[in-house]
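PROTEIN DATA CARD
Card holder: IS3 family transposase
Chain length: 295
Origin: Streptomyces ortus
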Amino acid sequence: MNETYAFIEAEKTTHGVAFLCRLLKVARSSFYAWLAAAKTRTVWRAADQALVHENRVIHVGSRQTYGVPRVHAELRRLGRRVNRKRVARLMREHGIQGVTHRKRRSLTRPDKKARPAPDLIGRDFHADAPGTKLVGDITALPTAEGWLYLACWLDLATREVVGYSMADHHRADLVVDALRMAAGRGRLRPGCIAHLDRGSEYTSSQFRCAIGELRLRQSCGRTGSCFDNAAAESFWALLKEEIGTRVWPDRATARAQVFDFIETFYNRRRLRKHKVFGYLTPAETRRRHQHGLAA
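Structure generated from the sequence above:
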């Protein structure tokens, strides 16, 4: 119908509105109503174009990883009160998409001779305060020089990466270095739970000595159950998909990109929905906890 009204508008000086409306079997009142709303439609189209531009800027700033929820949350943080369905429609119409996470290969190699620690988490990946619950794991990043192994520790209260280490091996040294970094910068409380899988790196005497030295409590999920360490598994999927690189040219390049992702983007800029505070970055969530405790 809009095309019919647009034709009448274009030809009205030649044939007259009444004649064209009779010819095309439309009511003159409907044509004039459409004409009166033309200015409003122009304003809305201009507003939509401006919003599309903002969506693109936020999407590019997120390394082209944000979908509708985080783009909408970022707009609200910037003071833009806009309907989420409108954001979704414009992103869909202009091909602005977030990333979806893919499965990863497991590095868990259980030590059958070692006695595993009990599961102190029980799939409850929530913590009331920072420094009370950590989850850790190892993943492998493919490079042209061979695998680069990455060990990380996440604080469950903030989902901040508080400790990480990279090497061309995945011996116990790798996870111990990451744990010591977490203890140094994560303000861990005595008795903090360090939850992980039953890989041989985590059941080694070297790792257990570090756990005791740092006054932590070790917790282990079951062998072969990714759901027992789902928070760490989810972070690996997020990291690999949002970095975007499938194979790095060398380990140095992979190290640099992982460092940049964790330190400049994930911890400080990437929004995550907290069940109490709403959309915040991990660093902002930590500060919110600290201010709440101080208050």
